[in-house]
Design brief:
By secondary structure, the chain is of the alpha/beta class. The chain has 13 helices and five strands. The protein has two domains: 117 residues, abc type-2 transporter like domain (abc type-2 transporter like fold, 3-Layer(aba) Sandwich), CATH 3.40.1710; 197 residues, no CATH class. The longest helix is centred in the middle third of the chain and has 32 residues.
Length: 371
């Protein structure tokens, strides 16, 4: 049978017209690939720029200002604040308000003019080991450029040296950053997939009509469906946590109950996303196609594997709508930094609000469908 056969040709044209007439299929073949390639191209960027830098300038001289200019004469570092004490700057690094800090000693200018080595201390947030290494290399390169400038300082002056302190992750173990990011990714995506599949199965099998015949009202039916999924996914949370601790040796420097509370909110957000997708779909295939519009952008914009700071600024505000991002910040802060609720409450609030909105909206839509 050849392609020129009239029957085969007629069937081929019929299928082609049928596919072309299926708007949902055509949209799924065009929009998700374009959206994913654009997001991957912009968001998964290994270039580090616009790192937030704090400065403690104890010298307050023309030489110290020249050093700061050397560090900020490109887009790698941006001075976000000057501090009187190193402790104040370190507190801002702990709160994720700064990525690194520079401490210029009081005798910096005097040492440089007296042919003695001037040591500058750098404090780098090493939770993301890759970013910390790049920041350290940029800082050392800036100082090498500075040492090549003569200015008002004699050419015989020794090089300005760096004393780099890697905070929270002195061993620069990059798996700590990756594992704590994937943690939230697994919770949300698994919650979305499992809850969506469960709800769609009820529609296909027809057990929804049977449930309506029981004395239970629609709200009780919805809660009864979500509760087992929640318990199952919290079991997954414990499994992932044990793997992170035992296999990858990610530390737990903060509160375990606080981490589990954040995981519970993350799981609820994932269940809400899946349930909402199920209310718009009439079959498992439709639910899978719709998930292509949701799950890849959630993964890419979460900052789970690459820092949000490396993304274009136009995309960074969108990451605030991603529950995975907020959980990744909470998990990294609690496990690696030992940060408490007093610092993380904005991210807890964002997670709680997202989970509440998703659960309520999906519950209302599912309740209407039950009615």
């Amino acid at each position: 049978m050849t392609f020129g056969n009239h029957r085969l040709k007629a069937l081929f044209l019929k299928e082609l017209r049928q596919i072309r007439g299926d708007r949902r299929l055509m949209i799924s073949l065009v929009i998700p690939p374009v959206l994913q390639i654009v997001l991957f191209g912009f968001a998964l960027n290994s270039t580090v720029s616009h790192l937030r830098m704090g400065v403690v300038d104890e010298s307050r001289t023309a030489e110290s200002r020249q050093l700061i200019d050397a560090l900020t004469n490109n887009q790698t570092f941006e001075v976000k604040g000057y501090y009187l004490r190193p402790a104040d700057m370190t507190a801002q690094i702990d709160k994720r308000a700064l990525d690194m800090g520079v401490i210029i000693p009081a005798n910096y200018a005097k040492l440089r003019h007296s042919n003695r080595n001037a040591e500058v201390q750098f404090l780098v947030d090493a939770v993301n080991a890759n970013t910390a290494q790049i920041a350290q290399g940029y800082a050392e390169g800036a100082l090498q450029w500075l040492n090549g400038q003569t200015g008002s300082i004699p050419k015989t002056v020794p090089m300005v040296s760096t004393n780099v302190t890697l905070l929270y992750n002195p061993g620069l173990d990059n798996t700590w950053f990756i594992v704590t990011g994937i943690f939230g990714l697994l919770l949300v995506l698994n919650g979305s997939i499992v809850s969506s599949a469960t709800m769609i199965k009820e529609k296909v099998v027809g057990t929804v009509e049977q449930l309506l015949m029981t004395p239970a009202d629609s709200l009780e039916i919805i809660l009864a469906k979500m509760a087992p999924l929640f318990l199952l996914l919290m079991g997954t949370t414990m499994l992932v946590f044990c793997v992170a601790r035992i296999i990858f040796h990610v530390p737990l420097r903060g509160s375990f109950p606080l981490l589990m509370a954040a995981a519970a909110l993350c799981v609820l957000a994932g269940i809400g996303i899946g349930t909402m997708l199920a209310t718009f779909a009439t079959s498992a295939t439709q639910a899978q196609l719709m998930s292509l519009f949701v799950n890849p952008p959630l993964s890419i914009l979460s900052g789970a594997t690459t820092p949000v700071e490396a993304m274009p600024k136009i995309l960074q505000p969108l990451t605030d709508l991603d529950p995975i991002k907020h959980f990744a910040i909470i998990a990294r802060s609690i496990m690696i930094k030992g940060t408490g609720f007093d610092v993380l409450y904005p991210h807890f609030g964002a997670l709680a609000l997202m989970a509440l909105i998703l659960i309520v909206v999906s519950g209302v839509r599912f309740r209407k469908q039950l009615g």
